[in-house]
Amino acid sequence: MADNICKLVLTFYKLSNELGDTGHVRNVLFENPTIFNQASMSAASLNQSMSCAKLRHHSSPSSTKRVAPIRMSSEKEDLITVSVFHEEQAGNEEEIEKFILNIMLEFHNKFGALIQGLKPTLNEMNEYPDVCKTKAVDIVNSFKEFEQVVDDIKGHTSLH
Q1: Cβ atoms of 77 and 108 closer than 8 Å
Q2: 27 CB contacts (<8 Å, ≥6 apart)?
Q3: Are 75 and 104 in contact (CB under 8 A)?
Q4: What is the mean pLDDT of the chain?
C-alpha cells in the first residue's frame, strides 16, 4: 500500500512538471464523492442513459452517503518528500504544515547522511528500474523505525 501511495504522490509531482508549473505540489484536495448504496446502483444500471448528475439529483437522501473530503499536503526538500493525507478541516492548515515540517526535520536529522549515500542507488533505480538490483522495498525497510518518530510527533499535536 505504501508503494502505491508513493506512486500517487510522484504522479502529482510529475503532472505539475508537465503542466509547466514549478514541479512542487503543496496540496491536492480529493472532493466529497457520492457513494451509492446497492439499491441506487441497481436503479442506475437499469437506466444507463441517466447521467450521473441526474442520478445524484433524483437519489433520495437515504440512498447516498457523504464522505469527508481528504487533502494531501506535501513539502519537498532535495530527495525528501513528506506527504500527509488528512481529513479536510477548516483552520488546521497551520498545524498540518508544522507537522510536516517537523517530520521532515526529524527525518533529515536521523537519515540525512544515509539519504546522501543512497543518491547513486536512487538515481540508478530511477534511470534503470529494470536492471537495478536494489528494490524499493529494501530501501523503505531502512526507514521502518521512523514510524515511531512520526507517531511521537503526531502525539504532540491535536491531529488524530
Answers
A1: yes
A2: 71, 72, 73, 74
A3: yes
A4: 76
In sequence order, the 6+-apart residues with CB closer than 8 A to the CB of 86 are 70, 71, 73, 92, 96, 159
pLDDT digits (tens, 9 = 90+) for 130-154: 888 888 888 888 888 999 999 999 9
Cα separation, 87 vs 159, whole angstroms: 10
Helices 93-127, 146-155: inter-axial angle, 10-degree rounding? 170
For the record, the C-alpha cell of 9 comes out as 504522490
Q: Measured in whole angstroms, how far is the alpha carbon of residue 51 from the centre of its chain? A: 30
* The one-letter amino acid at 137: V
